[in-house]
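Subgroup meeting minutes
Present: P.N., E.W., G.H.
Scribe: E.W.

1. P.N. recapped why we're keeping a running log of single-chain structure predictions: easier to compare across weeks, and new members can see raw inputs and outputs side by side.
2. G.H. added today's entry (237 aa).
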Amino acid sequence: MLVIPPRPCPSGGQEKDDLVYNRQDFWATSSNKQLNFLQHIRTMLKTTGSAAVVLPDNVLFEGGAGEKVRRNLLEKCNVHTLLRLPTGIWYSPGVKANVLFFGKKPGRPQPWTEKLWVYDLRTNKHFTQKQKPITRADFDEFVECYKAGAVHKRTETWSEANPDGRWCCYTYDEILKRDKLSLDLFWIKDKSVTDSEALPAPDILAAEIADELEAAFELFSKIAAKLPKSAARAEEL
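Output recorded in log:
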């Protein structure tokens, strides 16, 4: 493994995004930590091994190295399921993440991915850390749609007659036509954008704001605690 040293930052530490890993078993060289994490997970799998990886949105649509990684992943693995997670469930406010399910496969000329099933647990869903935390029951429909051990029995809940159905299937050919092979797939209309009356109730909005402020305060407190005390400034006071 070759590590290209990052530029030093003014504080004397190192800029994490400048750390580039150049590994022969990686499909692309990148400073994107999430892309490298995904590639590393793939290399750790045994042939026919399976993985479910939590990834931020940028891994789904980023160009350059991101597109190269997605292309190889779709071709050399069976990328069968994508779960779009809601916001409001992480300590860092506003985080948009997903769970990508795929299985490693032996080499063959044709791509392994034939269909990618997507469940949207994000659009028009509202959760908070304290007032309205996500629960296991919120995943019940996804678990039912997933049909572990019987994926051939999967059926879409989305249709023209049911545009708000959260379970939708994309073929490999449909994904190939997307710009940069983007896997940032969604189809349900965001009611808060199209209809102001569909915004969450005031108490939910207030809870979301309160949770985000509390999370931000906790994060800032941790940062402040790690900052070195200025002896010179203390003497002046």
